[in-house]
User: Fold this.
Amino acid sequence: MKISGAQMVMEALKLENVDTIFGYPGGSVLNLYDMLYDTNIRHILSRHEQGAAHAADGYARATGKPGVVLATSGPGATNLVTGIAAAYMDSIPMVFITGQVPIPLIGTDAFQEVDITGITLPITKHNFLVKDVRELPTIIKQAFYLATTGRCGPVLVDIPKDVQQAVADFHYPETVSIPGYNPTYKGHSGQVCKGAEAVACAKKPVIYAGGGVISSGACQELLQLAELCGIPVATTLMGLPAFPGNHPLSLGMLGMHGTYWANMAVSNADVILAVGARFDERVTGDADSFAAKAKIVHIDIDPAEIGKNVAADIPIVGDVNLVLKELLNKVKPCDTGAWLKKIAKWREDAPLSYSQDLDGEISPQFVIEKIYEVTQGKALIATEVGQHQMWTAQYYKFTRTRSLASSGGLGAMGYGFPASLGMQIGRPDELVFCIAGDGSFQMNSQELATAVEYNIPVKVAIINNQCLGMVRQLQQFFCKERYIAVDLQQVPDFAKMAEAYGALGLRVEKPADVVPAIEKAMAFSGPAVIDFRVMANTNVFPMVPPNGQINKMIKGEQQ
Amino acid sequence: MRYVLAVLVEDKPGVLVRVAGLFARRGYNIESLAVGKTVEPMVSRMTIEVEADEKILEQIIKQLYKLVNVLKVSNLTEEPSVDRELVLIKVSADVSNRAEIQQIVETFRAKIVDVALNSIVVEVTGNQEKLEAIIMLLSQYTILEVVRTGKIAILRGSKAIK
Assistant:
């Protein structure tokens, strides 16, 4: 039986077990939405396509399933771009379906026409412009396959309106053959042996774990390896939920705003086991001096990450989960007692600290620490981007995999709130918090309407210092305190704003009210926004100046 | 150093822009690029000449492999290979100097493929040194226009890139 292209897309989504999609309609996707009408697929209508993209991204991070987004041609498609780039930088499996003007109009600057495959070329794992309805089933199959295998990433499928309307036989392929795409999953056994030997000989080993541990489902293996060999674990921002933050072997996050002891450990280590991480400059600072004393074992599924930023002594290309399993068979318990003592000393020398005068203004770190305590580290957390994001990394000790959605690579403000909605939709029984800044929250606050419409009960904690704190901090240190364009005193009353949308709105100005407000928001059955009025001009410490050496951190205000 | 890569790609729309875009956005330098069909249906071959150090070359090859439409990347630089480029040169020429130019053309085993009252078009095939040499010699007359195909290269012997 012949069916239309639009119908094929819906059939394909069903066969891919997609039960939820995020999107926004428009002229070029009229046929797709018309066919969506007849399915049981749940559609979440965002209030801006960027919100749909980030929400689907949060859904993917929280569930491990691909996030699916539907948007129209032209502005619908361009509004997705930040969301696509965020997913690309953090290797999140996503499939974006966009409408396009009919094929005869392509290239004529038609109404709502943009070359979205051209625009997204550098920020997708792959993309397709469908020119023949008969190719549509194979392309959708390939899109899901590419998005969810190897190093995951976003794939975009652009479908012209006349292709959506054209009819053909529908055969959804069961297998995929893409001659130019063959990810390596199993690590080379010789290399794995070398890695195991390096670990066995190490006196001062450190595991440096990234988001790849989470996407390959290897948190358990990582924990076993760390415990068996007594190796301390530093994580990237993306890797925070990969290892329990309250574990004795946890060093917390490393890098620019990482802990002093994590950075000292990495800088003095003799072996670094880099697992599903990519030596980003926010981690390494000056790459030449990064872990200069260490032999580096680098495990990653993407061969192009090996040696890209920092040379690896023992590269192991493969799926982190499979490689760690194999490593576990080969390593032996090590005695790292002396090394752990040395790290403990660094931790004593420069612990994370802030002060909170209980009668004074609220410290931003205090709010985040209290959210951690009240939720016992078990909530799913989405963050926006900025100081609050770094304080979350420092003070919220993640204990469960897939419990954090944060725009690590792209650093997109406006990501967190819609991402938190996606997390909650994907994991309806969990408690979801969005930790936001007053600047970031305003970048996608229109999604409050989405939260209320679908009764998505996320709790938004706005760490409101009435300025763009991270930029202000950079201007303080690197622009001689010549502050420009960072003052946000003209912000809405966030509590009233939440109420205007139909959510619960709270405002907190005293330290004693922080915990009761968190509890009140948690007890509320719908979405809630808490406007925490915190002291302005607090900085994130420790800090490595850009491109500085990570063992030379600015520890606090006094230095 | 200059490297010559043979890149087999799927003959799909946009594949050239994917490859070119990769070089542009990662800051790799393309010296020349030539592309054409192969005997395999739906497979094209690009010959890309790049200026890079060894570390960058390794990244170029790995990044090329990340493109879904790229099937195979071979580094021909260190293998015995034949490389050629074709150039068309339009030179201002009349009765007074046509014979002279003809002599240069013969020396280089090049061809004159068009003669007009005030100009001739020379076709030369060869390696880079030969092409540079003839262009240098012809520049004593007025060169009106030069078109080059970019380098193409093939391995010597029976070994083939498929």
